[in-house]
Design goal:
- Two copies of one chain form a homodimer.
- With about 475 residues, chain A is α/β, with parallel strands linked by helices.
- Helix content of chain A is about 45%, strand content about 15%.
- In chain A, the strands form four sheets. In chain A, strands 1, 7, 10, 11, 13, 14, 15, 16, 17 and 18 form a ten-stranded mixed β-sheet that branches.
- In chain A, strand 19 and strand 20 form a beta hairpin.
- In chain A, helix 6 packs antiparallel against helix 16 and helix 7 crosses helix 8.
Chain lengths: ~475, ~475
């Protein structure tokens, strides 16, 4: 968990904000949003909105009235209450990369497995930099598709005592993850959100049936719902940042309004995931100036609406390996997420290949990035003592400060110390094997996995979880 | 050349600025600055300052009165007047890495030669991203030490028609570079600064004799002088960012005041190069949060003083190779330089190993970084047309924008297009050789060098340059 103590970077003027505000109002009211689920449409019509086939035309004032029911910030409950985290206002949480079907470890790139999934959960549990393992640190492709969510949720609950994500790929999966969380959280389940979940929009301007099933199921029990339009300009949005911002606002607010109809006060997060398409190849582009600028603007819009905000990235990149491109693209996107004041940073660490792959070594690199950027965002405290006049008086002209009293009192903690980055000179670095950042990172991953300790789960609870998983797996036919 | 059109990031409050202001005043007046050159001391004493051995105690009001004589911005003249550039106010120029004794190209790391020097000048000449080759893109170690400056200045004047740096390693070198520039610029030499040069401080609080010789020689003819304290906190400065900022201001202003005494109105740049020492090893550290925060603060201080400002970095890193560490450290430092509003960005591209090495492939990576960050710093124009409502009306719910009229009209130019970064998918990238960013960059370097064309220099002028170099080389005994 992290608290912003210095100003945000805000690229939009008041006038620009007003143009954008008129823009989303026009989209929801004139073109409307398609909801591919009868219950969703029923709720919206019952609340006075106009339906035409799948499409619901929304009154912007109705949308804002619903949005006003959402909390500005909320606490995500963790299995270990000491690991509860606050999302919203000036507080931020960080999650590793989510959703990658592939993993890269060293030179190998292959389909993710439940073992990889488990290792990534272990790393997220171990690192103080990460507040939640999320729900899908990689796809466990070796598990049967119909019951995979059971493996995922039970693994998350067993290997981590931080807040976790509930399943969202279908209503059935969502309900199972909710049932498992109920077992583990017991009476605490009713006291606050014990799951968070991401509901993606089928952009442009459409929610599909499975996502709506998940939204309805999670909203009913008060899970925190991160409503996220995933917009690649040129593909799911026009090739214009303002147009994409307006679309993102329209889509996110429509989903948030629906969640509030299901359960007024349901914790929600306005999600953003805004980047562009490489218009030569049609491939997704990440780490460029458009997505960074989009992040800065998105944060400002969410604050104006009084909503917690999730940034789309994270250390995003299109690079396939943890190389220089991956390093700088990730740093540029992460800088924007932090300067924009993201309350929830998804894909903090590990992202490669436009999200198709989670890289273990990239994860290490990204932890260095986020630590650096968090330190850089701290206030610079300036007072008489900080000027260290006595050190100058001791060292005087042309001397050095290595042995100064002021230095000796502070040298252990005075500077940020990187995890994996090297300051070795060429001779020593060569002697030690001439390893680049990715090669050095492999040893850090091994060390993390060796250091991990499984957080204790009450035996009876663990048995009940196993029993539920076994029964449901059978019922689902796997 | 680049113009800042969006706000700077400014971490210092008015109160902090005042504490820092009192700090530098105290340093220059109570401890003073050592000047290892009789003429420098003579000038300062003649202007009423108090001398004690090498040390001159400076009246802060005297210093500020001298600083007020310096222009807020000025034009650096280029051999080709179309390549003149403005330094100061909201305008920025970019230079490649300077001063590296070693070069890295592909897997090879070796001592730089005049051939490498020439290739780096050619690249700086070719790229619109770079406004000057500087003066020392790498050390030409294969040339004799005493006359090396002749090789350097004559090569710069021959291979580039952009503004160039004059020599500063000694008074003799400075005078030779001035004489060569006079030959090439002819009558234009008297009309404005035809050379710029960096004068480093022997921090803490001391100017050595050779640097002062160069400062006096260049100031006498009105070269633009970039007065740069090079501060590694823990070594040449206390382990405190505010203390280093105060020291940097004291040192820079003392040198700038001296330059103004030599020639009132002499164009100067307040230089900064502020980073920290790795306190475990004593090695220099670059790319961390302290140096980035120092940059943001330094820019703010220079603007308050009304001086053009040079940022120390650039795409700095301690990494030895163009890997993920080099990528993100460079991006973080460059982000800070641009957000701080640097008027002169030194070490824009190529920096490795804390500046000991200039990497050709790193240079390519850094050009992608600076292009991305410059694009990111552009204003986000928001108006009704930018919302592209007609595109939404055309595509509607769940469609895609690839074929929308709005997209087709704009797809060629709507997004930033990287130079070296890839958006290839895994299959195609593998088929093409599975090259990382550094490997791909090698081909770009080759392409640049093939595309370079030497700018025409009048035959008579070229002959006069050669004649001067030959004569002076003989006189210097090489």
């Amino acid at each position: 968990m992290y608290r912003y103590r210095t100003p945000y970077v805000e690229p939009l003027s008041e006038e620009s904000l007003e143009v954008l505000d008129r823009g989303w109002r026009r989209l929801v009211s004139e073109l409307g949003i398609a909801f591919d689920h009868p219950e969703a449409r029923r709720l919206l019509v019952a609340a006075g909105q106009e339906v035409d086939g799948e499409v619901v035309r929304l009154d912007p004032e109705f949308v804002l009235a619903q949005v006003a029911n959402a909390p500005r910030s909320f606490t995500l409950l963790a299995r270990n209450p000491a690991r509860n985290v606050v999302v919203g206002d000036d507080q931020a949480i960080f999650l590793p990369t989510q959703g990658a079907p592939f993993v890269r470890r060293g030179a190998e790139r292959r389909e993710g497995t439940l073992a990889d999934f488990s290792d990534l959960v272990r790393i997220a549990q171990l690192l103080d930099d990460l507040d939640s393992p999320g729900g899908l640190p990689c796809e466990p492709n070796d598990r049967p598709l119909d019951s995979r969510h059971l493996d995922m949720t039970s693994t998350l609950l067993r290997l981590s005592d931080k807040p976790i994500m509930g399943a969202q790929i279908s209503g059935v999966a969502a309900e199972d993850s909710i049932a498992l969380a109920r077992i583990v959280f017991g009476g605490r389940f009713e006291t606050g959100p014990c799951l968070h979940t991401v509901v993606n929009v089928n952009s442009p301007l459409r929610y599909d049936g499975r996502m709506l099933e998940a939204l309805l199921a999670h909203a009913a029990v008060g899970s925190a719902i991160v409503v996220t339009p995933f917009l690649l300009m040129g593909a799911m949005a026009p090739v214009s940042i303002p147009a994409a911002l307006v679309q993102q606002t329209a889509e996110a607010l429509a989903g948030i309004a629906l969640a509030q109809l299901v359960r007024p006060g349901c914790p929600v997060v306005m999600g953003s995931f805004l980047s562009n398409t490489d218009m030569q190849s049609g491939a997704p582009g990440f780490g460029g100036p458009e997505s960074a600028l989009g992040l800065l603007a998105s944060g400002q819009i969410a604050r104006r609406l009084g909503l917690p905000w999730r940034s789309g990235g994270g250390a995003l990149t299109t690079s396939l390996v943890p190389d220089a491109q991956a390093g700088f693209e990730g740093a540029i996107t992460m800088t924007a997420a932090l300067q924009a004041g993201a309350n929830m940073v998804m894909h903090t660490a590990g992202w490669l290949e436009g999200g198709l792959t989670v890289g273990f070594e990239k994860l290490v690199v990204d932890i260095d990035v986020v630590r650096t950027l968090r330190a850089l965002r701290e206030p610079l405290e300036v007072d008489e003592a900080s000027l260290a006049f006595e050190a100058h008086d001791e060292v005087r002209h042309g001397g050095h400060f290595f042995g100064a009293a002021h230095t000796l009192e502070r040298f252990r903690t005075c500077f940020h110390r990187p995890l994996n980055s090297t300051t070795r000179n060429f001779e020593r670095w060569t002697r030690e094997g001439a390893q680049d950042a990715a090669a050095r990172a492999s040893a850090i991953v091994d060390g993390w996995l060796a250091a991990y300790e499984e957080p204790r789960l009450d035996d009876a609870v663990a048995a009940e979880v196993d029993e539920y998983v076994t029964r449901r797996r059978r019922e689902l036919g796997d």
